[in-house]
Amino acid sequence: MTGGEVAGILVAVFWAILVSFLAVVLVRLAQTLRATTKLVADVTEQAVPLLADASATVRSAQTQLDRVDAIATDVQEVTSNASALSTTVASTFGGPLVKVAAFGYGVRRAMSRKGDDVPAAQSRRTVIVGRTVPSARRKRKG
């Protein structure tokens, strides 16, 4: 065997090894692509119903938020009406009720003073260092 024949055999062996290596890589790549395709199909199969459920949930939440908004608007309107009603009642009945209460107080006071034409003698006592002194005696000293 000559040097050229040996080199040709080595090149042929190199190409055979390279082709074998590339064949193994291509087989593995095909297996990986099949597994990836199956995985994507399974995910799609499960994701579509989940997305449909999520969409239905979002629509339901939007409906509930619309209802809450309507309730909040109604509460605001009721609060406004109650405020206006209390202002109206206060302005309509407040002044006359205060006048009636003041008149009643004045009548009661006048009735209680009517029987007290003669002032009653007041018996006031003052405490000075542990003993009591009549108020008349205290006034004379001062």
Structural class: mainly alpha
Number of helices: 2
Strand portion, in percent? 5-15%
Name the helicity range: over 70%
Low-confidence runs (pLDDT<50, min 5 residues)? Answer: none
Question: What number is the mean pLDDT?
Answer: 83
Number-wise, the strands total 2
Q: What is the ordering of alpha helices and beta strands?
A: HEEH
**How can the largest sheet be summarized?**
2 strands, antiparallel
Gross morphology is rod-shaped
Sequence of strands across the biggest β-sheet: 1-2
Cα-to-Cα separation, first versus last residue: 154 Å
| CA radius of gyration | 53 Å
Description:
This protein has 2 helices and 2 strands; from the N terminus they run αββα. It has 142 residues and is mainly alpha-helical. The model has no long low-confidence stretch (mean pLDDT 83). Strands 1-2 form a two-stranded antiparallel sheet. β1 (125-128) and β2 form a beta hairpin.
